[in-house]
Amino acid sequence: MKKHALASAVVFLLLGAAAYGALFVAPTEKTMGTIQRIFYLHVSSAWTGLTAFFICFIANLIYVWRREPRWDWLAVSAAEVGLVFTTVVLVTGPIWAHPVWGIWWTWDARLTSTFVLWLLYISYLLLRTLVEEPDRRALFSALFGVFAFLDVPLVFGSIRWWRTQHPQPVVMGGSGSGLEPTMWYVLLFSWGAMLSLMALLLRARYEFEAVRGETDLLQREAEGM
Amino acid sequence: MSLLSNTTALLGKELRTEFRSRELLTTTVVFILVVVVLFSFTFDPGSNESRRFAANLLWIAFLFAASLMLQPCFLREQNNDTLSALRLCVADPFAIFAAKLTANTLFLLLTELLMLPVFSILFNMPVFPVFGQLVLVLFLGSLGVSIVGTALSAISAQARMRELLLPLLLFPLLTPVVVASTYVTVGLLDVAPFMEWKGIGFLAIFDVVFLTALWLFGEYLLEE
Question: How high is the ipTM of this complex?
Fold first, then answer.
């Protein structure tokens, strides 16, 4: 309990520092002005979400191989946490896009891919709710998770090549290479803070899932008697 | 060579089961017709614009039809309690998938080929000058749909709300197939038809990636 409180306090401080960095340390962007500061939340959430989905994929693979419930618990926790961060990306995106591009949403490669990614993991979680038996649920969702993760580069590639009718927006055209060094530091620090938040959430969610899994098992044993 | 002989034997079984009643093919063809007529109500099918959308409609209709056609794939085995028997009689469980996905690809391709002239007449798009290339896209696209769909129908057959679950799992995963095959088809049906070979290559890569994944992980999908 004490350890949890301490970890939460550390994560809270890190997030506070990242917010301070994004709002006061990073220089104001020339064309977009203050609104561009949402970038530090937006991009770091996107990277953190992808990290969580990658953890989910690895846990899925290990589950198929080892068949230990804890890998299933880790996978579902990572998928849920990743979904939270991806939702943040999908919400902050339009908030940033509207004042800058004049529209809330554009079917640009990155936006569309993120949306499809989000849908894939929603399906993953839905699948879990629709299969009763725990071992079967774990196995099926693990296999679907592997398929989904394999799909991600293909989704991104196809949308990038054939679905982006408009040229890349000027401000996001460069691949980060045009970023000012201070902006880079703040961004990386924000990512670090977000990763620590992810670790905290993942841990809490995992413990919850473990308790749930164990009670489920006990209940099944009791019913089987 | 037992994988090949097992697969051909099972493929024969799939084809015999279907051609005995032809219910899957008939229902799918009628379903596509209904969807096509519905489409024609949602926009002006006579305008020049429709030529631009025809290819997209074609793929939407095929995709919806596929999500229905793939439902009974494993459900039939499960309802008749034949899945464990199938598992026992093949050396490599991949043979079951290989047979089923070949059968599904054939069924899909067959309905698509039946529907192509109908689309051509209704939406005024000349398909015959580019027929060969169209068949290539249809084949690679249907193969992709069948590979992923066959795998997922093994999952959805054992879940609740399976009729809804299958399209829900299938459509997001098929995004790359839909994007690439629609793009190629739009090019082929253009006023000045052109072939996007990059799209064909991409579809082939998709098929290979998921066929490999199915080959590696398929047997776990059939565990009792």
Answer: 0.89
